[in-house]
Amino acid sequence: MTVARAAYAAGADDPAWQLFDRIGTFLAGQRLEPDPANFAFAWHLLHDPAGPLAIAVASLTDGGVRLTQRDIDSLGVESPVSARRVREKADNLVAQTQMQVEGFQDIVQAMHDETMGFGRDLVASADVIRRFGAGGEGAMFDELSRVTATMLERVHSAEVRLENATREAVELRDKLEEARDNARRDPLTDLPNRRAFEEAYADLAARGVGMCVAVCDVDHFKAVNDRFGHAVGDRVLKTIAETLKASCPGQFVTRYGGEEFAILFAAADLDAARVTLDNARAIVGAKRYRLRETDAPLGEITFSAGLTCVAEGESLGTSVGRADRLLYTAKSDGRNCVRTS
Length: 341
Fold this sequence. Notes:
Blueprint: H1 2-10, H2 15-29, H3 36-47, H4 52-60, H5 69-75, H6 80-132, H7 137-182, H8 194-206, E1 211-218, H9 221-228, H10 230-247, E2 252-257, E3 260-266, H11 270-286, E4 289-290, E5 297-299, E6 303-309, H12 316-332, E7 338-340
Parallel strand pairs: 6-7
Antiparallel strand pairs: 1-3, 1-6, 2-3, 4-5
Helix pairs in contact: 2-3, 6-7, 9-10, 10-11
């Protein structure tokens, strides 16, 4: 710690250290956990104090209002570390794809060269046949046997290389598909993420499928993290995610961000969606959560939700915004309830 203080004192006039100091002050003032995601958010905000993120935050905090975790999640700032890892993985896959394409090109070129060589051998064999004439059957068949053996060897070699290249292509395709799926899946709950939700909404809208949108938020979730720690909070989120998925079969359940979940009810009217969602809410509220280590009770865990029917041609922002306002109404009405329109 003494070394750290000395380093900080030595760099007190350094803009980077000053930014570091402002980040700490900002997080403390907003009562935000100093985790990597919030630190990244604060860095983006304070690194560009006149940028669009700063303007949005100023609007949200006008009048001394503190930011909530939902506000931060909704602003969509990604951790630089996770972003870099995603880019690195994507770069590796692109490099593998390029190598695979180049490998196929090499095989095709080799087969082309071998075909030309086989053609030359056939011409040479024809010359041998003409030279030996009718009396040279033995030499003629020896030459034909040699050419045929050469051809079979080359074909076999090409088949082996094609088989290896095909296997590598299949493996690469599987890796690309896995990377695509990971980019659309929340690592904690294993639910589709916000990006997947947006894509599913766009797909249903393009196909003219009627749908309802629900936005759900765990009640008093910050208190769970404050009292029991983030590890317990993560287990609570995973349990709620599993319950929502099991209670809304056939529907598109996603983790929208933080302690917020969003559900797309495809080809369902508002009443049917409300019954399904209210049943899920009751199941979550009826669970008795306990600490794994001590078996001590956590207390009641509930969620509030806003549910709305999407009008034809309505944008994602409009429908989700309306569902979010209904969610706030549910919170104002005492939480642990569903509000619809």
